[in-house]
């Protein structure tokens, strides 16, 4: 995500505190590997890239972040809590009937969440629509980031979004693909080639290397959307 003018957003806690925050979420959870696969990328985004804070979470000019890979949201909740979007005292209630922190984020209940997640394959099309909506309002500076899993690329809705965004030149759109080898289908040359063939700027990085992630997120890509494929250990 190109960022040449925004001030760096720093959280009150360090990355190593995330394990403690995740450990507070003791509710039944069957998607812990899905959560941990996103941890490093989410931290870099919120700590160094995204121009959004608890004070600007409703500001028209904020960057938007959409979590499409919404199952196993523990890492997302931990990062939001670490950056002050809500109090960490909510974390132990994760998954409980009366908790706002459900097994999928709900934008009406979770401070900082832009969308409610659910079926795989919906986040990228929503991100495309968000960019088009911002453009219609004359808001060309806010960036729209969306995190998807590699298995979501088995869904046709994502490929329609990819095919539209490239030729439309949606420079504000930034897609992060967490690649933990979950996809049923593959592409010659890897996932990045799928985006590049549709006119996107695309780069593949180590999804655990914070400097590589930051460099990829801030890669200039004038006139094109950006896809960052973050490879992590295969899902066990």
Give me the Rg, rounded.
16 Å
Structure classification:
alpha/beta
Helical content band? 25-40%
For the biggest sheet, the summary is: 5 strands, parallel
Element order: H for helix, E for strand: HHHEHHEHEHEHE
Q: How would the global form be characterised?
A: globular
Distance between the termini: 30 Å
Query: Roughly what fraction of the amino acids lie in strands?
Result: 5-15%
Cross-sheet strand order for the largest sheet: 1-2-3-5-4
Number of helices: 8
Q: Stretches where pLDDT falls below 50 for ≥5 residues?
A: 1-12
Protein model, in words:
- By secondary structure, the protein is of the alpha/beta class.
- The chain contains 8 helices and 5 strands.
- It has a 5-stranded parallel β-sheet with strand order 1-2-3-5-4, with helices on both faces.
- Helix 6 links the parallel strand 2 and strand 3.
Topology:
Blueprint: H1 18-23, H2 32-37, H3 39-49, E1 64-67, H4 74-82, H5 123-136, E2 144-149, H6 156-168, E3 173-179, H7 191-196, E4 201-206, H8 210-217, E5 226-231
Parallel strand pairs: 1-2, 2-3, 3-5, 4-5
Helix pairs in contact: 3-4, 3-8, 5-6
